[in-house]
Write a structure and sequence with these properties.
InterPro entries (chain B): 2Fe-2S-bd_N, 2Fe-2S_ferredoxin-like_sf
Shape of chain B: globular
Domain FAD/NAD(P)-binding (chain A): 6-311
Distance between the termini of chain A: 8 Å
GO molecular function, one term (chain B): oxidoreductase activity
Shape of chain A: globular
Oligomer: heterodimer
Number of strands of chain B: 9
CATH class of the largest domain in chain A: Alpha Beta
CATH superfamily of the domain at 14-72 and 81-92 in chain B: 2Fe-2S iron-sulphur cluster binding domain, sarcosine oxidase, alpha subunit, N-terminal domain
Strand order of the largest sheet of chain B: 3-2-8-6-7
CATH class of the domain at 14-72 and 81-92 in chain B: Alpha Beta
CATH topology of the domain at 14-72 and 81-92 in chain B: Ubiquitin-like (UB roll)
Keywords (chain B): Oxidoreductase
Radius of gyration of chain A: 22 Å
Protein name (chain B): 2Fe-2S iron-sulfur cluster protein
Strand content of chain B: 25-35%
Largest interface: A-B, 58 and 43 residues
Helix content of chain B: under 10%
Largest sheet of chain B: 5 strands, mixed
CATH superfamily of the largest domain in chain A: FAD/NAD(P)-binding domain
Strand content of chain A: 15-25%
Number of domains of chain A: 3
Chain lengths: 469, 102
Amino acid sequence: MSEPWDAVVIGAGPAGMAAASTLAEGGVRTLLVDEQAELGGQIYRAIERNRADPALARILGPDYLKGGMLVDRLRASPAQLALSTLVWRIDDDLTVWTRTAGTVAAVRASAIIVATGAMERPAPTAGWTLPGVMTIGALQILLKSARLTPSGRLVLAGSGPLFYLFARQCVAAGVKDLTLLDTAPTRQMWSALPLLPSALGGEGWRYLTKGVKLLAALRLARVPVYRDVRDIAIEGDGRAEAVRFTTGRRAHRLPCDTVGLHEGVIPHQQMTRSLDVAHDFDEAQRCFRPRHDASGRLSKPGIFVAGDAGGIIGAEASAQDGAIAALSALHDLGRLTDEARDRRIAEAGRVRRAHLTARPFLDRLYQPRAAVLDPPDAVTVCRCEVVTAGALRDVANKGAPGPNQAKAFLRCGMGPCQGRLCGPTVTAVFARETGLDPAETGYYHIRSPLKPITVGELAGAAGAVEREG
Amino acid sequence: MFRRIDGGDNGTAGALSFDGQAIPFRAGDTVAAALLAAGVADVRDNPVDGSRRAPYCMMGVCFECLVEIDGRQNQQACLVAAKPGMRIRRQAGARLLPEGAL
């Protein structure tokens, strides 16, 4: 085991980069770990390669380029980076188990900040396992990291800020054959309206202006949009060939080559779940988030959560969130006075709040539609073990109390993704069937290793620890 | 089906192989991006129902892009940087047991 770090930050997105910079600048030995080969997380993915590329900068827009400032600050700080490095276990004594290129290591820390970000809400849909169907986030990652755009007939289906943003980026990137299937029920706009005035405060008006501009640009480009889309089913023989859907009483069928699905984002809870800390169900965002105090502190001593991993707040608020957790940790480590901590946290908190004014409005406007949370019987919910919503309802109605029993009966959540892509839906289906709320229904027990580690890799680590010991 | 936004070709940084087929790639491509750019439609068969699967999330959460890379099975193609000479093989069915995952 190598010598201990003062702080280990997990995740190099906005929250993690800001946290690691703040910690390292504060004089503590800081290690920033990320599974990806590059800094930026998903939102600022490949920012260091792309920032000097005018073509991509034009397509991706100014908000993406803001990631450059976080990267510059981090690179100028003494924080040490461990990229292409997986964290697969955190022990109660703050040992962080990593794997880099097949080599397992254990590092000790005095403080840990979990900044593992968001993932897209699983969008169980008939035919969503077919090749040619990807998440919109995945399509955007291909654009950011490999300058790739879909070349054939592209159908984007879903709702939420990323749905419109990526559609706009496709137009800017020269995608010719694009159709949008907007799944947000129109009535949600009316229920969100009362939240609009407060959304205009702080920085909120910028988010809303950006949204209005996106929609105007899509209209100007004459991108076909179907609204209030329901009953989406993707069909094809071995790959996606067409999308069927309904609007009102009309049934449609669109031939396609690529389908992008997106129904908003939720905290990526795998790591915080594995820590066995309490998670609360956020009714407004319809997802679980780990219970934490205002500075991100979890109930496990020494461990903080920052950014979207603690509840969806977006990139800019996440950066402030990372700084706030780092300032609390610096204080814990004896590097900040009470006064300095409180003053700097108050500053970061003001900026954070300014970026959150539009959040309740957006959460209401883009609340996930019923079919995403509670899909029809025939739809596959667990992609790995091929378990349908109908099979889940069946075990729920036979008296299985919750997701962990469903796992035992059906193997859902036991495939390679370890429940990441079915867990949220399994909870929602069970809650609906049993009449309990999602908090009472609970979620899969998540245990380490968070990703498969081979016996060979572990044996290598044991050898290394023995030799050092 | 994908194209590079600059309309250029795929192979400026070398080539890997996918079941023997040469796959050119660019610097910064992950294995999954290189395969998609080259027109590879799917990379494995689901071990439960045999259905064809392809990269889905591109950020390491869905595990649909599992392939064999240089003899090591169950590698997430979306998290591994493409390198010249890499030998990628399609993964059919469940992982073979001898190496044994926990």
